[in-house]
Every structure is written in C-alpha cells, then in structure tokens.
Give the backbone structure.
Amino acid sequence: MPSRPDKRRPHQKPKQDAKSLKRKREQVSLDQLQDAVDQFDPKTADTTKFSNLPLSSPTASGIEASHFQAPTDIQARAIPEALKGRDILGAAKTGSGKTLAFLVPVLEKLYRARWTEYDGLGALIISPTRELAVQTFQVLTKIGRFHSFSAGLVIGGKSLKEEAERLGRMSILVCTPGRMLQHLDSTSGLQVDNLQILVLDEADRIMDMGFKSAVDALVEHLPKERQTLLFSATQSRKVSDLSRLSLKDPEYIAVHESAAASTPESLQQHYLVTPLASKLNTLYGFIKANLKSKILVFFSSGKQVRFAFETMRHLRPGVPLYHLLGAQKQAQRMQITSSYAASKQACLFATDVVARGVDFPSVDWVVQVDAPEDVDTYIHRVGRTARFNKDGKAVLFLDPSEEEGMLKRLESKKIPIKRVNVRENKKQAIDESIQSMVFRDPALKYLASKAFISYVRSIHLQRDKEIFNLKSLDLEAYAACLGLPGAPIIHFDKGEDVKKLKNMSRAALSDSDSDFDSEKKKRKVRTKTDKMFERTNQDVLTDHYTKLIDGTTDRAAEDSEDDFLAVKRVIEGDDFDTVADAKTTLPSGTKIIQGLGGEEPFIVDSKRREKMLKSKKQMLKFKGKGDHIVFDDEGTAHHPYRIQGEEDFKRDGSAEAQRQKFVEGETAKVKEADISDKALAKEKRREKKERRKIREAMEDGLAPAASTMPRLETPDDGEDPLAFLASLPVNNGVHNDGGDSSGEEEVEQRPRKKAKKWFEDDSDDEKNRKKGKKSKSKVIEITEEPDTLEDYEALAAGLLDD
Ligand SMILES: Nc1ncnc2c1ncn2[C@@H]1O[C@H](COP(=O)(O)OP(=O)(O)OP(=O)(O)O)[C@@H](O)[C@H]1O
C-alpha cells in the first residue's frame, strides 16, 4: 500500500525556511552594520548628513521623519564613537543637540543586540529634573518610532506600585535619580543585570552634591560591564566622578573648547546694576517694555517666584504670566510647561528647575533677577534662549556688591557680557503698589516674609563669598520693597548642617527644584501636626510671623515655632493669691484643688496634672494631716476632751469665776436657741393652719381663695398644680366612673390620696359631718406628723379631749 503523503511537512518546511532565512538576512545586515560602524572614522568620513552615518534603517527612518537632516557638531562626533561601544564624556554648548547625540547610540546598541522585552532593562537614561526627563522621553518616542522597543518614563507623580507594574517589560527607561533608586530598591520585577548602556544627561548636575548619594546607590545596582555616556554643556573631567561611574578609557568630546566662549554666538548677553531693593521695579519696567516678547525670568527660590508672580499678576503688566517651581504638583508643572512652550508672547517666572536642558521654543529673553550661584548655572540659564543657531538675548540683574565678583567669574569662562543701563523713561516704580497689596492681604504679607527669609538664607549659604556678601546688602530696603514694615530677624543654624548645606548647590536648596528635594522630603517624617501647621500657614498669619514681620520678634518668639505643642508656661499654685483669684484668672474648666493643710492650690490645667489627680499617693499631700475626733453617744463628732494642765487652768482665772463664765455662756446659748426654736414652731403652726383650711374648703366643695393657698414649689413649666386642681369641678371625693382613668383623673386623685394616707375609712366620717354629728370614731385624722414638742402636746391634748 502506498504510504499517504504527509501534507503537513511540505507546509512547515517552507515556513521554517522563511523564518530562518529572515533571521539569517537580519544577522547579515547586522554584521554589515557592525562592520560599517567599525570602519567608520569620524575624522575622515563625511558627517554632514545623517544618512552618511552607519545607522540601522529604523533609526534612520525615525530621524528623517523627525525632519533632522544634518547632524550638529556634537552629534557628528559623538554618535560614531558611541556606536563603536566607547564610553563618552560629551560637552557642547546649550541647545547644540546633545539629546540626539546619546539617544541615537542607545537605539542602535539595543537594535544590534536584538533586544527584546524578555531581556530585561537594556538602557537607562538619567535626567536631573522631571521636565528634562519628559522632554527626553518625547524625543526618544519621535526618533524611535520605527523600532519595536518598549520605553518608559520614571519620574514619580504616580504611585510607586502603579509604575512598578509596568517597569518589568521595559527595554529603555528615562528617569530621575531618586525615583529610579526607589524602584531599584523595591520593585522585584525590574531586572537590570543585563543593562547595556547608561546615560547621564546634565551629568555634572547629577554627579554633584545634591544627587551624590542617590546616584552612587543607583550605580551599585547596575552591572559594571556596560557602556556609559555622560553629556552636559558644562562638563568636567573630574577623575573621581569617572571612577564613581566606572568609566573605562572614556572619549572626551568637547565641541566648544576651541571656540571663544561656552555660550552660543547667537546669544547677546547683558547685565545691569540695580540694587537688591529695586529689582522688582526693574523687572516690572523690563516686562512692560517687552510686551511682544517671550521672556523667561529666573529667581533663586520658589518663594521669590511666588511672591513676584502674585504681585505682578495683580499689577497686570499686559502679557500672560506663568510661574513654575518644584513645589507644584506634577500635572500642574506639565500644564504650565506646555502652555508656556506653546505661547508666542508670555512671561514665565521660574526657579532653576528649568535652567538645564529644557527646550522651550523661541524664547526671546532670559532675565536673571537673582544672580546664579556659579558660572555653570549662568550658562545653563541663558542657554534657554538662542538654541540651535537661533538668536536670543539675556540680561543679568546684579546688586552693586555682586558686580565685581560676578564679572570676574564670567570672564574666566570667556563669556562676552556687556553692561547696560535702564532708560530713565522706562523705569517703573511699583513699591507703593506692593506695599498696599501686602498691607491688605495677610497671605501676601506672609509670602513676602518667606521670600525675604529664603533670599537672605540663600545668600548666607552661597559658597562664593567674593560675589555674595550678606553684610553689603541693604536688607531694610529689601524688606521695604517687598512691602514689609521691617526686616525680619533671621537666626542661622550653626555647625555641621551648615557645612552640608554649603556644599549643596543652591538649586538643591530652593524648594523642591529637583528630584533630590522630593527625596529629602520623603526622608523627613512629617507628622500630622507638621501638615496642620503647614496648612495653617498658607493663608493665615501666625502670631509668630506677625511679630516676625513687625520686626518685634526675639529669640523666644522665633523658638515658638519649634515648640508648637510644648507647654509655654507652667502655672504654679503660688501664681495666685487665693483660689478665687485663680478661678477667675484661669480658663473655665480648669480644676483647682485647695490643700487642707494650707498648701498651695493644685491647679489641673494639663493632661499630666489631670493624671496626677488620679494618683491617690500624689494627692495625699493635698488632704492635710487629719484631725483626731471622737463620737459621742448620739453619734456627734467632736474633739476629744483633754485635761488642762494646772498652770493653764490657773491662768484662766479662779475656779468660781470660770464656772460663772461658763454658766453665763451656756445660758446665753440656750436663750438664743429658744428664740429661734419658737420662731420656727410659730411658722410651722401657721403653715399647718393654712393647710387645714384648704383641706376643709375642698371637702366642703369650695375653692380656697388664692391668698389662703400655701406657697408651693411650682414645677418647671411654671404651672401651679394647686391652681390646676382648683379649676376642675370638685367632685367631693374620688372621681371614678368605672371607665378608663384619664391622666386628668389621676392628677385629681393624687392630692386626696396623699392627704388621707392614714385614713382608715372616710365614708363614715363624711356621713357624720353631713348629719352635723360629732364623729364617734376613735380614729383621729392626722394630716401631718408632729414636728415639735408643742405638736406632740397638742396631739396628746386632742386624745385626752376625746
Ligand atoms: N540635527 C539637528 N537638526 C536640527 N535641529 C536639531 C538637531 N539636533 C537638535 N536639534 C534641535 O536643537 C534644539 C536643541 O537640542 P537639544 O535640546 O538636544 O540641545 P542640548 O544640547 O541638549 O541643550 P542643553 O544643553 O540646553 O540641554 C532642539 O530643539 C532640537 O530639536
């Protein structure tokens, strides 16, 4: 029997063949690509076009689709070296295209390694700020659109768990250092053992004091066998930094070293000398004179930014105003960044959070109201304009005391800067408007004091004392220009902390300018009280700050912020002359316990003292020493009799005289008691008489006259129960119709029952009275129990009468 042909085999074979053929073809092209890279010599090769570079087709297509044609200097030199697998230290002016210089090698490295999502993390790109990380990620998604890698952004703003779930399958991550470290420490699915390439954008910033610990810890997680690329406009060749990152024989590519300056030639740089107290006037005048421009204004801290923004906003200069600082929420930061980026004419007040790397299109002016901490910061700030061969202008405001030192520093880096003066007719004075605004708005006053404190603090912590000298600044005038009635007194910390702070860059010191700051915040445990205090201060001035602003603060007042919950003053018992005095002085609810032995009163004004109150042992001293007393046969307590000594007895006079004195005293006491007893008996008799009259009137069916009614305690509702009773038809006895007894009936019956509680039978009595006969009953009606001796006598007499 002929065997049946296997129909599956012929089908499978071509498929397998096609797959292996495809794989083979890919391998061949990868080998060719690798050969091209190896043979590419940037010094001799033509690098004027991207198409001349040895790049894979997905990367080349991505670059073309993003409309990049010719590589910039840094790109032309760095990309071929990086493609060869070398570590790079890249330094190029701001806006010269460094982002592409490291993104292209990243894509190519993973492409040539045929990286898949199952290989773990292949490339890690670290940025110092969230804004820069977002921007880098956007460029990556643009030029990498024809690749099949998965890429992620790790900058915080979402929950760690939410981010962690997605990290496991990412091939490329763009991150900020602090957040990435958190994931490396806690996210189990994140596999970094295979990491191929590490990139540090703005490397000098990432390697400085502010990020030092985070970066060192982060690098410890990564494998040593990897390629490392470091890029910045202000790159250093510090050996210590290179060893920290285990760079191997790195290629130093600096495209501006031979050039005249480290800033773009298309950038016009100016400075003007304006005293610290006039800076806001000058800024306002500047904005008013450049309403058709896109302006970026730098301040040294978030507090400065907020104060300037809030005041200028009220003055309506005639251009959209934005403000950006690290303390804002991530979504708000992103929204402001994109709104400002899209604007043609606008003014953004910002901290150094956007000083580095951020690529706002077409910024006309960069204004530095507060001087930068060093020349590098200056270069990065002014680098937000005149990007990629476009024109741009920058102006730096300097206090007269800062001029000399700052110019010296700028000259050392060959920065061409010219002095300019503000035209008289362009000067604006907004001091008075600010003063009245601050006077009216306590929140603004609070902000002004914070701005003052943070500025003075930042100057105090500056490392370069040749430029920044606190003593030469007119702080009173500065406080006045912020609308404050006087310069707040500031106490600076001493010792270790200051040393640490001085080593830190000012960017790191300003509020949350970077990822580092959020790390600092995380480390500091904030209690509910802290949060409550922060909240309170947002719109209400505390006493402390009122004093601070009024300039009346002293060290004790300063300290009050620290001991928010501490007992300010312990009230001692002897703070008051009498207990009554204490009661009127202390808040209601305070307990005061007077010791029996004449001790000072115990005042319960705190939890601790209240607790003490519960301790019997502690309270013993307030009970006094106790007195010895005896009880007589009648149970009355009195001091025990003691036999008087003979001498004491003689001192009181003769025995007869003492006896007489005693008799007289006792007689007087008896007389006194007799008078009061008689008065009491008289009153009782009168009451008894009145009660009898009422009873008789009721029994005869007559309402008693109001005047004859005895005064009874009225219930709370003010109704006299007797008056109520009198208004009812008197039934001459118990009303009972045999039906349901209503409430009224109950009320009616009650007094009768009470009055006759001792009655044996009232029917006979009634009959006898009606017949005018004298009752023969032996039962005597006793309406009241006898109280006094006289009552008993009267009762006895009645019995005898019978
Ligand atoms: N080859 C290129 N062709 C055209 N434009 C380019 C090219 N490379 C970069 N650019 C543009 O130049 C601008 C600046 O690029 P990039 O942000 O990479 O500069 P940078 O050197 O990183 O600046 P910084 O030092 O401020 O971070 C961007 O708008 C970018 O789109």
